[in-house]
Amino acid sequence: VYTALKITGDPISVHSEHTGMNDEVWPAQETIKYIIPGTQYTASRSLPITWYDGGRRPSDSIAKLLPGQSLPGGGSIFVGEKGNLILPHVGMPFVNIEGVTIEPVEGLDHYHGWVDGCLSGKQPSDGFEYGGHLTEAVQLGNVAAYFPGETLEFDGKALKITNNSEANKYLTREYRSGFEIASI
Known about the structure:
alpha+beta; three-stranded antiparallel beta sheet; 3 helices
């Protein structure tokens, strides 16, 4: 999603619903809803992204948008204005956009891409420009799990959750003396 839509902004908000958790155990099932800034490739100024985990799945209304296909066990589903795309973790993508076909391409192992980038000095295909924002989004989902049912609003420039001061304690940690990071 981040590469295809050229997402380079931080999430605007994140919302978690789950089956319950405590300080020792994360939720067995969870749905995380993000609002991400839109790009030139999105129809609006913001983009909703939903993460389903632990066997939770998209609604039947999403499955109906994908004629002749079943939802994959894992992967991504893009629902667009002109069609839809299933991108399973394993297997060929399925595109439901009139006149569009997908040509097979050689796969890229992102671990090898990173090592090749280090050795060659060239930018890997999965670089930090999007990887940092993607990682922030995933970690914000973890923070949201502590506040189920509440929408947390995030200011990426300030690296703060603006509507719940208690949530901010999960964004960083206190480091032992001598191991501090000056910029945090």
